Amino acid sequence: MAKPSYPRARRLAETVRRLVGEWLENEQVDQPGPLVTVTDVRVTSDLHRATVFFTVLGDEQEQAAAAAWLAESTGRARTFVATQVRLRHAPTLEFVSDDVPGRGARIDRLLTELGTTEPAGPDQEGPQA
Question: What is Dmax (Cα atoms) for the chain?
């Protein structure tokens, strides 16, 4: 993936994120379904491949359906991006489900569970070693 210090890859990643978002907005008008959001794009340093991370608002069945739809629509998305960027080769797109929201929810749940247990204070004796 592109190094943060490589400005051309960063600019292309931001452009691809914006363009794929526009493409998704146009596609979802024609074909209503679960809400798909592009969360991040990472571009290789040679600018040939872009990994598009997305989240889906809905249950697991809707998430699987959206992932399948994105996998089959990759060519249309790449064509849309290629018409908008001025590069010799448009990057190949790969859609990957972003698991950060799920991990964040798990961390929140674990922190809530930890908050419900009473911590051992200095006046309470713990197990003797």
Answer: 70
Is 98 in contact with 39 (CB distance < 8 Å)?
yes
- The residues, any chain, with a CB within 8 Å of residue 5's CB and separated by 6 or more, are none
Contacts of 91 (CB under 8 A, 6+ apart): 12, 16, 43, 44, 47, 48, 49, 50, 78, 81
- Distance between CA 84 and CA 122 in Å, rounded? 64
pLDDT digits (tens, 9 = 90+) for 96-112: 998 776 777 778 888 88
SS3 53: strand
Predicted TM-score (pTM) of this structure: 0.73
